Amino acid sequence: MEDREKLENLKRMLDTLISTCESEISIIDKILSKTRNTKEISKLQKEKAFWQGKLEVAKYSRYFAE
What we know:
Elements: H1 3-34, H2 38-65
């Protein structure tokens, strides 16, 4: 596999990861808007922060893959 192919595969993988992170964040936001249990809210906020961190790293990596 050539370097160009590897780079294209990396870009596709990062695009998929970005899309997945954005979807997970959206789902968590919808659940958060309906949740009243403070323990559940705390858990969801931690999970959202996890996905936001992954999203930030993926976007940063994608920027340098250009």
